[in-house]
Design goal:
By secondary structure, this protein is of the alpha/beta class. The protein contains eleven helices and eight strands. Helix 2 (32-40) crosses helix 4, helix 5 (99-111) crosses helix 6 and helix 7 (164-180) runs parallel beside helix 8.
C-alpha cells in the first residue's frame, strides 16, 4: 500500500493488509500536533494510549489516568487525524465493573473523544465486555501479553508467555478475543515464537510491541521512539531520534539569550509610525 495516499484507513483495509502481508504501522499519540505529524508521515493507526499517564501526566504507572483525561486527549487527536484510524484506550476502572459500565464508557470515548476503535486489556471476563461493546456498534481492539493495567498481578512489567503453559494461555486468549469479535490484537512483551503462532492462528491483524517481527504490524510509544524518555529504554524500543537532547539544548540557548539580553532583538519587536510615536511620547 502506498502510505503517501490520503485514502482513509478502514477496518476492511486493515484485514486486506494482513492478507497481503503488508505491515501495519501504529504509534501512540496524545495531542493534535503529534497526530498531525503522524498523519502526514503515513501512519495507519494512532493509539491514544493510557501510557499517557506516564509519558504525559507524570504518573509512575498507567493506573491513575481517568476516562475524562483520555477523552480530552483522544478528542485532540481525532480532530486532526485524517487518514489513520484513532484507537482510544479504555483506562483502568472504566470497564472492569460490568458490561453496562464498559459500554457506557466506550460510547463516551467514541462520542465525546472521537475514537474510531476502543482498546481494552486482557481476556477472561473481558470477553463479555468485548461482546457487549461490539453489540453497541463500537469496534474493539484486544490487548494480551504484558497488560500494564494488571502489572501488579503479573509480577511487574515482565515478558509473558515464557513457559509452555503460559504461552498456551496467551494463544487461547488471542483466539478467544477474535471469537468475541475483536477487530485487532495488541501483543505485548512475549516471545516472538508465541506472537508468530497467534498471528498465524487468527484472522485479524496483530500489532506487536516487544513481540518480535512476525506480527502484522508494530506499535511504539511516541516518546520512546523520538528519544523523549530517559534511558535506559525497554529492549524492544528503537530510538529513531534523540529529540530530548535537541529540545534541552534549544531551551538552554533560549534561557541564555533571555538572561544576557540577546532575545528579544529589534527584529522581534513591533514598530510604530513616527507621528504616532511622537504623539505618544509627548
Amino acid at each position: 500500500m502506498n502510505t503517501d495516499s490520503r485514502r482513509r484507513v478502514t477496518l476492511p483495509l486493515l484485514l486486506e493488509m494482513k492478507q497481503r502481508g503488508e505491515r501495519i504501522a501504529m504509534v501512540t499519540v496524545y495531542d493534535a500536533p503529534s497526530a498531525r505529524l503522524a498523519d502526514e508521515a503515513g501512519l495507519d493507526l494512532l493509539l491514544v494510549g493510557d501510557s499517557a499517564a506516564m509519558v504525559v501526566l507524570g504518573h509512575d504507572s498507567t493506573l491513575p489516568v481517568t476516562l475524562e483525561e483520555m477523552i480530552i486527549l483522544t478528542r485532540a487527536v481525532s480532530r486532526v487525524a485524517i487518514r489513520p484510524l484513532v484507537v482510544g484506550d479504555l483506562p483502568f476502572g472504566s470497564y472492569q465493573v460490568s458490561d453496562e459500565e464498559a459500554v457506557t464508557n466506550a460510547i463516551r470515548l467514541v462520542k465525546d473523544g472521537g475514537a474510531d476503535i476502543v482498546k481494552l486489556e486482557g481476556s477472561d471476563y473481558r470477553l463479555s465486555r468485548v461482546r457487549a461493546i461490539i453489540e453497541a456498534g463500537i469496534p474493539v481492539m484486544g490487548h494480551i501479553g504484558l497488560t500494564p493495567q494488571s502489572a501488579t498481578m503479573l509480577g511487574g512489567y515482565r515478558a509473558q508467555g515464557r513457559t509452555a503453559a503460559s504461552a498456551q494461555r496467551l494463544y487461547d486468549a488471542g483466539r478467544a478475543l477474535e471469537a468475541a469479535g475483536c477487530c485487532a490484537l495488541v501483543l505485548e512483551a512475549m516471545p516472538s515464537v508465541v506472537a508468530e503462532r497467534i498471528t498465524r492462528a487468527v484472522g485479524i491483524p496483530t500489532i506487536g510491541i516487544g513481540a518480535g517481527p512476525s506480527c502484522d504490524g508494530q506499535v511504539l510509544v511516541w516518546h520512546d521512539l523520538l528519544g523523549l524518555t530517559p534511558d535506559p529504554a525497554p529492549r524492544f524500543v528503537e530510538r529513531y531520534a534523540q529529540l530530548g537532547t535537541e529540545i534541552r539544548s534549544a531551551l538552554e540557548r533560549y534561557a541564555r539569550d533571555v538572561r544576557d539580553g540577546t532575545f528579544p532583538g529589534e527584529r522581534h519587536s513591533y514598530g510604530m509610525p513616527d507621528a504616532e510615536r511622537a504623539a505618544f511620547e509627548k
